[in-house]
Specification:
Elements (H helix, E strand, L loop, with lengths): L1 E4 L2 H12 L15 E7 L6 H20 L3 E3 L2 E3 L1 E7 L4 H13 L5 E3 L4 H14 L3 E4 L3 H6 L8 E5 L2 H12 L7 E7 L2 H13 L6 E8 L7 H9 L4 E6 L1 H14 L5 E6 L6 H4 L8 E4 L10 H12 L4 H23 L4 H8 L3 E4 L2 E4 L5 E3 L3 E6 L2 E6 L14 H4 L1
Parallel strand pairs: 2-5, 2-6, 6-7, 7-8, 8-16, 9-10, 9-11, 11-12
Antiparallel strand pairs: 1-5, 3-4, 13-17, 14-15, 17-18
Helix pairs in contact: 2-12, 3-4, 6-7, 12-13
C-alpha cells in the first residue's frame, strides 16, 4: 500500500506557484515543485500502533508547514509531499520500500519507522542510497548495533537503554519486594541489549536475577517460563516482547496464578489501550516511557489537549506522535538550513541540529544519535501515569500488586 499526503490547501498553493511560473536562484534551481519525503511504516502487523501514530505525527508537522505556505528552500516556498508505504511490520519489506521511495518516487529524504527490526534495514538502505533518514522509537544501543562500522546517512532520536533500564529499578525501589527478578526477553535486538543490561546492573541496584526466559519473537507458549519464574519466587518481573507475545505472557501468568508485586513490560506495554487489549490483565502494568504528563516537555499540554482524545489517552501512542512530529521538524529545519534538497547537503545540516522540540532537546553526537530521557509510567485506565522521572525521583505512588493479575 502506498499513500500520498498533500493537503488541499497545499495543492492550491502548489498550482498557483506553477501557474505563476515561479523561479528563483541557486539551490534547486528555484524549483517550486513539492518536496517529496518518503516513509515506510508498520501500519499493519504487530507493530501497527507505532506506525500509525508516527504517521499522524509526520502528517501533523507537514500540515502545519503547508498551511503556512510551505517550506522555504533557497528563497522559494515549497509544499511538502509525504509518500507513505505500509511494510506490514516486516523489515525486509521495509528496506525494499525505502529503496522504491527514493528511486521510484523521488524522495529526497526518509522519515523512519519504529523498533530495531524495521529501523535497521531501512537505515541500511539509506546508507546504500546515500539519502538521509531520521528515525525514532528505536533504542539507541540497538540502533548502533545494527551497523558496527557507523552510520553516515542514518540518524536516531530516542532513549538510551543504559539510562532506560535504570527506570525499572528506580520504580521498584519505591515499593517493598524480595528484590528477586524474573526476565522475559525475546531474541530480537531490543531483547538482547536490554536483557544484557538488566542482568549487569541488577546486582549494583541490590536485585538478583533469579530467572531469565529467552524465546523467539512470536512465542505463544509461556507455560514453562512462567512456572520457572514462579518457582524462583520472583516478585519483580521485567519483560521485553512485542504486543501479541505480551498478551500471551499475561494470560499464562493469570492462568497459573502468578501475580508479582510489580511487572514491567517494554515495547508491548507501550501500545495504546494495552489494558483493554489484554482484557484487563494489563491494568497496572509498568513501562518505560518517553512522554507522560508532568515531564515538562515543550508544548506538552498543547499536544495532550489536541490529541489525547483521538489517541485514546495520555500514553506512549501520544508520545510516538510527538516524537514523529519532532523528527519531521528536524528534517524540515535541515532542508531549510541547507537551502537545498540535495541529500548530501541535507544530511550535513541534520548533523548540525541543536534545538528544543516537543520531544525534548535534540543534538546529534558523532554516532548520529540524540539520546532523550526515559521515565517510568504505570497503566491506569487509558493513561500511563508518571511514576519516576528521568533522575529516578518518585512522582506518583506505584499501585501494587498489579491489579490486572491480582484480581
Amino acid at each position: 500500500m502506498k499513500k500520498r499526503m498533500l493537503t488541499a490547501a497545499a495543492l492550491v498553493a502548489t498550482s498557483s506557484l506553477l501557474l505563476a511560473g515561479c523561479s528563483a536562484n541557486g539551490g534547486d534551481g528555484g524549483s517550486s515543485e513539492p518536496i517529496v519525503i518518503g516513509t515506510t511504516l508498520s501500519l499493519t502487523g504487530p507493530l501497527q500502533a507505532f506506525g500509525t501514530n508516527l504517521e499522524l505525527g509526520y502528517e501533523t508537522a507537514i500540515e502545519e508547514i503547508n498551511a503556512a505556505g510551505g517550506l522555504e528552500v533557497d528563497g522559494v516556498q515549497r509544499q511538502i509531499e509525504l509518500i507513505v508505504q505500509d511494510n506490514g511490520s516486516d523489515g525486509d519489506k521495509a528496506a525494499e520500500q525505502a529503496r522504491s521511495l527514493v528511486l521510484d518516487d523521488g524522495a529526497v529524504a526518509l522519515l523512519g519507522a519504529a523498533t530495531p527490526p524495521i529501523t535497521i534495514p531501512v537505515s541500511a538502505a539509506a546508507e546504500q542510497l546515500k539519502v538521509p533518514v531520521i528515525s525514532t522509537i528505536t533504542p539507541i544501543q540497538a540502533f548502533l548495533g545494527g551497523n558496527p562500522d557507523g552510520y553516515k546517512y542514518s540518524w536516531d532520536v530516542f532513549f538510551d537503554e543504559l539510562q532506560m533500564t535504570q527506570t525499572q529499578f528506580d520504580a521498584a525501589d519505591t515499593i517493598t519486594t524480595n528484590k528477586k527478578v524474573a526476565l522475559f526477553t525475546d531474541q530480537e535486538e531490543d531483547g538482547k541489549v536490554m536483557g544484557g543490561i538488566w542482568e549487569t546492573i541488577a546486582p549494583d541496584r541490590g536485585y538478583e536475577i533469579v530467572y531469565r526466559g529467552e524465546f523467539p519473537v512470536g512465542n505463544a507458549n509461556f507455560a514453562s517460563q512462567v512456572s520457572a519464574a514462579m518457582a524462583a519466587n520472583a516478585e519483580v518481573v521485567i519483560a521485553q516482547v512485542i504486543p501479541p507475545d505480551g498478551i500471551a505472557l499475561l494470560k499464562e501468568m493469570k492462568a497459573q496464578g502468578y501475580d508479582p508485586q510489580i511487572m514491567f513490560m517494554e515495547k508491548a506495554g507501550n501500545t495504546g489501550g494495552y489494558p483493554t487489549i489484554t482484557e484487563g490483565l494489563g491494568d497496572g502494568l509498568m513501562a518505560a516511557n518517553w512522554f507522560a504528563e508532568g515531564m515538562g516537555l515543550d508544548r506538552e499540554q498543547e499536544f495532550i489537549d489536541k490529541f489525547s482524545a483521538q489517541i485514546g489517552g495520555v500514553n506512549s501512542d501520544l508520545g510516538t506522535l510527538v516524537y514523529g512530529y519532532s523528527i519531521a521538524q528536524v528534517l524540515f529545519d535541515a532542508i531549510k538550513a541547507a537551502g537545498s534538497t540535495d541529500p548530501a547537503a541535507v544530511n550535513e545540516a541534520i548533523g548540525k541540529t541543536d534545538g528544543t522540540f516537543p520531544a525534548g532537546k535534540i543534538k546529534f553526537n558523532a554516532d548520529h544519535v540524540s539520546a532523550l530521557p526515559a521515565v517510568q509510567t504505570q497503566w491506569v485506565g487509558n493513561d500511563m501515569i508518571l511514576i519516576t522521572d528521568a533522575n529516578g525521583k518518585s512522582v506518583n505512588a506505584v499501585i501494587a500488586p498489579m491489579p490486572g493479575l491480582a484480581k
